[in-house]
Amino acid sequence: MKMVSVSEALSLISKHAQDLPAVKLPLRESLGYFLAEDIHAPISIPPFRQSAMDGYAIRFGTAESYEVVGESKAGDFREFGMEGAEAVRILTGARVPDLADTVVVQENICREGSKIRIQRMPKPFANVRPIGEQVKQGDRIAKKGTKVNAHLLGFLAGFGLEEVLVINKPKITVIVTGNELQTAGSPLRPGGVYECNGIAMEATLAEAGFPVASLGQVEDEQFATTKAIAKALEADVLLISGGISTGDYDFVKTALEANGVAEIFYQVNQKPGRPLWFGRKGKTLVFALPGNPAAMAVCLQVYVMPLLRKISAGGDFSFDLEKGILFGDLDNACGKGRFLCASEESGMLRLLGQQACNTLGGLAQANALVYVEESVSQLGFGDKVQFLRINRW
Ligand SMILES: Nc1nc2c(c(=O)[nH]1)N[C@H]1C(S)=C(S)[C@@H](COP(=O)(O)OP(=O)(O)OC[C@H]3O[C@@H](n4cnc5c(N)ncnc54)[C@H](O)[C@@H]3O)O[C@H]1N2
Ligand code: MOO
User: Pocket residues for ligand 2 (CB within 6 Å)?
Assistant: First the structure.
């Protein structure tokens, strides 16, 4: 299969980005999920006529002096006759007795024993929130496709909702490959490197609200790689790091083939991240990401994150490019799609000095990736550029 361009790769991925099924979740577990249906108010808010202030509930226009015959505080439910010039002491949030229509704030009365005298008469119905003032029963209170944020979650809780129907999140498995990989805690042996791709992937996904279900490590060995992939294929999305180039010990491609994962594309005309592989077996979408840490991270941002957002949110597959102005210049004689670490401020993009593909150092400092299309060979100071925001959380 021939090498694809960045836009061909995105378009092929988008064709396989089908929404995950809807699932009912306890409201408190729904943070970060997307609603799979509109939600209608099961009750009105407020659900009863409610006092907005501390004061006295009266029947408007009855008198200027009232006899206080009782009290209604938040949570109380008691009716009062409210005959003639009778008032009820009332507190903020309390139910206004059925026969009262107005609440006089306590600052505007003079109380002597059980009597009050109104010094400044409010307007009729003042300080009484009618039933359904904010939301009427049956109103749409949240739209399908909305992301559940903390405030929406709290708003829905105010209606007594216990469960919501949301689009499920993918089960994600990560496998990192390489004999050289070492875990922190022991001195580096000659030829070894500390594992960072799996850790960075897990953190990037967690930041975006996608927990990794399993993170495993495998040696550069055909049988072990095939076995690890076979086990991981029950995930919705499998991410593999390393071993996808053409070296003698790069076994990922053959192990994917041995497992019957159909290749959708291999190799993208881009830098970094050329040896990216994408395929599918049944419901499982597989990305074999290049092992160089910056190549892995760029491919994750550019291809994997849009896919995850689409399948767990409904809506469209989107590559969220923004437009800015280049503060500097760059040469792209190689004719590849380029992703360059940059610092963006007020729409101005400065390319960072650190662009090496074998370290995450550049990405750690950047807040943007400038995207230069294959056909663009040179850009100068003040030219328009496209960029992708990163590290935004
Ligand atoms: N003859 C060719 N050689 C290479 C090509 C090519 O087209 N022809 N492509 C180069 C490009 S571009 C990249 S990117 C790499 C990708 O190779 P692999 O995906 O097979 O990755 P590895 O060889 O396993 O590792 C590359 C590099 O990254 C380090 N690495 C890998 N995994 C991790 C990890 N989890 N944590 C930290 N560091 C990791 C690994 O030690 C290597 O240094 O191939 C080029 N070669
Ligand atoms: O993708 Mo590679 O990172 O260009 O070395």
Answer: 271-274, 290, 292, 295, 357
Whether residue 22 contacts residue 35, with contact meaning beta carbons closer than 8 Å, is answered with no
- Domain match, 363 and 283 both: no
What is the spatial distance between Cα 155 and Cα 42, in angstroms, rounded to a whole number?
Answer: 13
pLDDT of residue 393: 58
| CATH code of the domain covering residue 28 | 3.90.105.10
ipTM over 0.95: yes
The domain tally of the chain equals: 4
Identify whether 1 is part of a domain.
no
Do 302 and 319 contact (CB within 8 A), yes or no? yes
DSSP β-ladder status, 284-289 and 237-241? parallel
pTM listed for this prediction: 0.89
For 187-237, the pLDDT digits (tens) are: 999 999 999 999 999 999 999 999 999 999 999 999 999 999 999 999 999
Structural domain that includes position 348: 322-389
Residue-wise pLDDT for 349-376, tens only, equals: 999 999 999 999 999 999 999 999 999 9
179/220 same-domain check:
yes
SS3 for 156?
helix
Pocket test for ligand 1, best of 292, 296, 336 (most atoms within 8 A of CB): 292
> Do 154 and 196 fall into the same domain?
no
**Ligand 1 pocket, 176 CB below 6 A?**
yes
Co-location of 104 and 208 in the same domain: no
